[in-house]
Amino acid sequence: MSSWLAASLRMGRGIVGVAACALFGALSLAAQGEQMFKGEITDSECAALRGHATTLEKGETNAHCTIACVKKMGAKYVLFDPENEIVYPLDDQKMPEAFAAQYVVIIGFLDKAGAIHVDDIVRDLPPSVKHVKSVAIVCDACPRGMAKARLAAFQQLVNWNRFAVVPNPRNADLIFLFSANSYLGDYGTRDGPDQRPVSVDITYMNVVDPHTGESLWGGSRQLGSLFVPKATRDLIAEFREQLEMDESSVGRQLFVQSHRIPKAAEGPVCQTCGK
By C-alpha distance, which of 240, 232, 122, 234 is closest to 179? Predict the structure, then answer.
């Protein structure tokens, strides 16, 4: 056997081994019990009352009420699953604060007492997003390297082939808003493009409701000016992953795997990896 053929066979076996390890690792996660939990981040006080109505103070939002109940009344952050009417205690009491009163996806383990050991929390998408047909790409304050986000986004959406990309944001079901500054929630109310100073260091993407200006999903990548196209592609891929996670068991498994943290795995998950 030639040295070239032997090397090719070794490479082929290596690729198969890596693929097998990846699959084995994913299956091991399921075996360990790591899974997705969906619902609203609220507090134990309001969850016991099935809502905020009796604890809301004048001018408060549900988020203000949740945080106040935790900080002032000694309540704990919990996840309320409205579909099954289950309240899950959470072992992590720091991460949930940023998601107070929001619908989320939690990646974690359920212990014997019924509490979730939180690995990650991701804001859930409204069900209406799954049925939209058109998007517009907006990058109206994109100087220098940030300007490359528009073309990168267009190419990624064409490859995805899920939405029609329309030129006029007024005719779109969703707006993919790119910027080097964090979104202020003012797309529908501001007078013209964002006028803040721009330093092209972080690429921000927000999926915006064109009627309300609400950000339905958001993410960012700090890759600098030279890698704006990569940051853009990565952000759209992340949004796609979350949008499609409920469409198949594979999608859910991949979502869980991509949002897990190292502490979730105990010991090696593949005895042949690295050999």
Answer: 232
CA distance 221 to 231: 6
Kindly report the length of the chain: 275
65 and 42 Cβ atoms separated by less than 8 Å:
no
Segment 199-225 shows an average pLDDT of 91
Q: What's the alpha-carbon Rg for the chain, to the nearest Å?
A: 22
SS3 call for 30: helix
What is the architecture, at CATH level 2, of domain 132-247?
3-Layer(aba) Sandwich (3.40)
Q: What is the pLDDT of residues 151-184, one digit of tens each?
A: 999 999 999 999 999 999 999 999 999 999 899 8
**Domain extent listing, the chain:** 35-124, 132-247
Tokens of 70: 């935790």
φ/ψ of 38, rounded to 5, equals -115, 145
Contact 88, 114 (CB under 8 A): yes
Burial of 176 (0-12, 13-18, 19+ CB in 10 A): buried
Amino acid found at 174: L
Contact 232, 156 (CB under 8 A): yes
Residue for token digits 């959470």?
A: 90
Taking the chain, what is the end-to-end CA distance rounded to the nearest angstrom? 23
Residue 52, amino acid: H
Q: What single string gives the DSSP state of each residue in 216-244?
A: EEEEEE---GGGHHHHHHHHHHHHHHHHH
Q: What is the pLDDT of residues 103-160, one digit of tens each?
A: 999 999 999 999 999 999 999 998 889 899 999 999 977 888 899 999 999 999 999 9
Q: Within 10 Å of residue 13's Cβ, how many Cβ atoms?
A: 10
Q: Which residue has the tokens 């853009």?
A: 232
Q: What CATH class does 35-124 carry?
A: mainly beta
